[in-house]
């Protein structure tokens, strides 16, 4: 396994050298637990102790993202006051030619802080540190062999303030607050920051609590986000989005759609439906077990054949 970060994360003993039964080959949640991570800075260094794996990407194609809980043991002056609190470390391998997630988030936060839009800061992720590592010899060999057909990637490390999943909410009123906040934030991103998210899903809608305990919805994970530009082309050959929440147009490959604001709003609607309706209901469960044009047809039926879903929706929406 060539992560390209072996000199930054010390794993002892090296777990990848220990043979595992075939049913235990996926990463254990404590794979990185206790490992130190030292990140260089111009005025010192940032030291963290890694903890539990919160998320990892299934599959060998794509970013190979890991999100790991961590605590800050040594903080530079610009992070004064952050020492000790739990944060998260995101390790990923995005396409080399696309704008990085930390860059897009930092630019959006800078725009919000300069104008009369400070309220947006509560609804965006906070980047504490980010860096990209140079290409490894392995990647250079792949470039030499496959040439233009190989999509070059970089190893990216981002340290972010901790957020919490919607599943941690217990008050229905807080859930409504989260959806309202995320909708307002996303509208601001499109109208003012000129960004499209392109991967709105249950996992990417999170929350933080303010100093008074108030819940603030946060739109997270800008891996697929792009600047709004009619002449731009996708930076990856892979379709963007999380399948159960993709808009119908995006699911139907025959349409060759350009991702628009309305597609993300449609995804937000599907997140709302999946959140408030039982996932075991056949009408919803099929969204998670189908793909492509089949899922597109299922979603068309959801809108055009109300007799199939009336009982499902009316249980949760007044006058549904």
Walk me through this protein's architecture:
- By secondary structure, the chain is an alpha+beta fold.
- The chain folds into two domains: 1-92 and 126-162, no CATH class; 98-125 and 163-320, Orthogonal Bundle (Transferase(Phosphotransferase), domain 1), CATH 1.10.510.
- 28% of the residues lie in helices and 20% in strands.
- The chain contains eight helices and eleven strands.
- The protein has a six-stranded antiparallel sheet, covered by helices on one side. A three-stranded antiparallel sheet has the order 7-9-10.
- It is globular.
- The termini are far apart.
- Mean pLDDT is 83; it is low at 14-18.
Task: Give the SSE map.
Elements: E1 36-41, E2 44-56, E3 66-74, E4 86-92, H1 101-114, E5 127-133, H2 137-146, E6 155-161, E7 164-165, H3 172-193, E8 195-196, E9 205-209, E10 215-219, E11 226-227, H4 248-251, H5 261-276, H6 282-285, H7 292-304, H8 310-314
Antiparallel strand pairs: 1-2, 2-3, 3-4, 4-6, 5-6, 7-9, 8-11, 9-10
Largest β-sheet summary: 6 strands, antiparallel
Distance between the termini: 52 Å
Strand segment count? 11
Strand numbers in spatial order across the main sheet: 1-2-3-4-6-5
The CATH architecture term of the largest domain is Orthogonal Bundle
The rough form would be described as: globular
Number of helices: 8
Cα-atom radius of gyration: 21 Å
Mean pLDDT: 83
Please state the structural category.
Answer: alpha+beta
Briefly note the CATH topology name of the largest domain: Transferase(Phosphotransferase), domain 1
CATH level-1 class of the largest domain: Mainly Alpha
**Helical residue percent?**
25-40%
Percentage of residues in strands: 15-25%
Secondary-structure element order, N to C: EEEEHEHEEHEEEEHHHHH
Detail the poorly predicted runs. Answer: 14-18
Can you tell me the number of structural domains?
2
